[in-house]
Amino acid sequence: MLISFAGKLSKGQGDGEKVTLNGKTVGYALLGQKFDKPQYFWSRPSAVGYNAAGSAGSNKGPSNPDYLKDVQSRIDTLLKYNPGIKKSDIPADMVTSSGSGLDPAISPQGAAIQIKRIAAIRKIDEKQVADLVAVNTQKPLLGLFGPSTVNVLELNIALDKLK
Fold first, then answer.
1. Mean pLDDT of all residues in the chain?
2. Which among 56, 65, 72, 109 is least surrounded, fewest beta carbons within 10 Å?
3. Enclosing domain of residue 22
4. In terms of Cα–Cα distance, which of 87, 60, 86 is closest to 72?
């Protein structure tokens, strides 16, 4: 009962911060979900298929052949669908899952390598898409703690509103 009461005091903390669109819940701000259609920004890979009930990392180390195969497959997919980028342009967060497997955000570089693809498919200016990424980039807390991140769900919602 105390936990339930505490959840009511802090908005969105007990049941997650819902993200709504046209009155319908489309996701949660702090839980990643799969985006793999080419007209959207893609999420960070998940070792648990974005299943919040099974939050976990892959537990495969960098010397594990299956892990290396998974990473190479993700690199190949990014290179195939994002012409013009090089392997060295791809940040680690776009080919490795996080410890929870549910990160809602990617790095600004992870978003940047997808701009050209999205702009071409949607037939909009690359600068417009880049500006949207910049506006949706969260800076480190107090400018010091943690990396800059881009929430993929919020970015894709903003992208759909660009018509």
1. 85
2. 65
3. 1-27
4. 87
